[in-house]
Structure formats: C-alpha cells, structure tokens
Amino acid sequence: MSSRSADPLTLEVVELIGTVVARYHEEYEHAAAQHSLTGAQARVLNVLALEPMPMRRIARTLRCEPSNVTGIVDRLEARGLVERRPDPSDRRVKLAAPTDEGRATAGRLRDALDFAREPLAGLSVAERTLLRDLLRRMLGEPGA
Amino acid sequence: MSSRSADPLTLEVVELIGTVVARYHEEYEHAAAQHSLTGAQARVLNVLALEPMPMRRIARTLRCEPSNVTGIVDRLEARGLVERRPDPSDRRVKLAAPTDEGRATAGRLRDALDFAREPLAGLSVAERTLLRDLLRRMLGEPGA
DNA sequence: TATTGTTATACTCTATAACTATA
DNA sequence: TATAGTTATAGAGTATAACAATA
Hints:
In chain A, 64% of the residues lie in helices and 12% in strands. By secondary structure, chain A is mainly alpha-helical. Chain A has a single domain, classed as Orthogonal Bundle (Arc Repressor Mutant, subunit A). In chain A, strands 1-3-2 form a three-stranded antiparallel beta sheet. In chain A, β2 and β3 (90-98) form a beta hairpin. In chain A, α2 (39-50) crosses α4 and α2 packs across α5. The longest helix of chain A has 27 residues, at 8-34. In chain A, 27% of the residues are buried. The interface between A and B is large, with 47 and 47 residues. Chain B binds a DNA duplex through α2 and α4.
C-alpha cells in the first residue's frame, strides 16, 4: 500500500498540480479580499450570479452543511450583495439571489482572476487545446 | 478592464483548472480527516516530515501568521505527532519536529493522496511529459 | 412524517496587537 | 532595539444537533 508511485515523472506532475492549486487559492483569496469578501462569501456570490437558488442547493453545490450557508448569506445580505426571496411554489424554501450590486461585484471578481488567464496567454492555441484535452482526461470528463 | 478573455478555449481551461483545484482540496481534506486531522494540521505535519524547522519558518512556508502556527503545533503536539525542541544556537527558537508516529502518519497521508496519481495513470509517459511541460510553462518555472 | 431553513453550540483557522525571553 | 514565540482577542468557517414552519 505504501510508496505506490515511485515514478519521478508522475511525482513531478503531482507536485506541479499542487503548485497550481496553491497559486489558484492565493489569487482567489486575494481577489475576494479586494472586495472585502472572504473566499467562502466569494464562492457563494459566484454560484448565485450564475443562477439564484434555494439555500439547501447552495450547500450541496459547495459541499458544506446547510447551517453554514445561513451565516454566509446573512453576511452577504447585510452588505446588500444578496437577497432572500420567497419561493412561490414552496413556502418552506428561500431563494437566494444576487442584487444588482452583487452581480456587478461577481463580475469584477471574475475579471480579477487573472491566474489562469495571463499565464495561458503564453501558450499557443494548439498548446492550450492540448492542455485542455489532458486535463479533461485527467478529470475523467466526457469528451476525453 | 471587463470581460478580457472572451476566448472560449481559454475559459474552458480556466474552468478545468478550477475543477482540478476543487477536487484536489476535497481529496486532501478527506485524507486528513481519515487521520482525524484538519487540512491545516496535515499541511504542517507534511512540511515538518520533510524537514524540522523553527515555528517562524513554518509560518512563512504556509504563508500565515506565526501566531496561528502556535495553535496548530499545540494540537499536533497534544496528539504526539510533533514535538518542540530547543535550538542550541539560539535560545529564542523552538524547532518543531515530527515524532516517529508523526512521520508514519505523514507517510500514510501522502499515500492517500491518490488524486493526481490514479488519473495520471491513464496518461502515457509522453502525455505526462507534455502535461508537465505545459504546467511548468503556465507556472513560469525554470526549464519551461 | 419528511423537508427547509434556522438557531445553538463547540471547535478550528485566521489576523492583529501586546507580551516574554532572548539576542 | 530587534527578533522568536506566545497569549489575548475577535471574526469567520465548519459540523452536529435540535427547532419552527411547511409539505
């Protein structure tokens, strides 16, 4: 069970991916902080910018407990970035939706995520296509 | 400043990287939880398994405040995975080092990180080499 | 009865500032 | 005076369990 992958090439790729993950996180937190948001708040705002949804579904999307979402949406709502609306078809449900300002913030947030964009500019279209296909296969995605 | 990268290919690669990051984190937290460790505790244990070091340097390595490290090492020490030793050359310094059990746990932890290893097994050596070079260039590393 | 969202609780991580013991 | 580590404090995220309203 131990030291299963002595292969140096594979280990290097694993380490490179670790570096990508670390850098991605730094950039994400930094971009969020520039708007005085925490990472968790930025993630919730981002999923809501794509599509308003019930509290419960936010939790499933972010893979956390529903009780956490209550607090995060509370803080976003207190800052006027998100609002809670009733669901006409089920009075138990509350739909969380971004305000206009919330949508604007989400947009600026995404623009700030230069991490993958700028480095990618150094790769040719053929190379980016190659990278896309390799990542797809690594993730076991359809079309790989 | 807005919507700088309309290029669909680049956007897809960015999204794939986001997926890699999310999956990597899940696997990491899961592996840590299997040993009743938090992600932060697992990260500290891992860097110490490579090389014992002063508290201050752990903080620099993990890019957090030194005061945080105190608590994390406290908890690792309470569980017998890490110990604090005096530094003979400077009595202000405390060197954090893994115990035998800490080293063993770190080893098992790394084995559990199948994320990048198993999917990578589906790629040929040539493809892994290609992926390595693309990631290197993306990260602006030497040898790219 | 089951589900949605919330509250209450407890723990960890995080940064800031102040403290101590060394240097 | 400067540095290493710690403590005190406060805010945020997290999971668990219990709760009210609704289905």
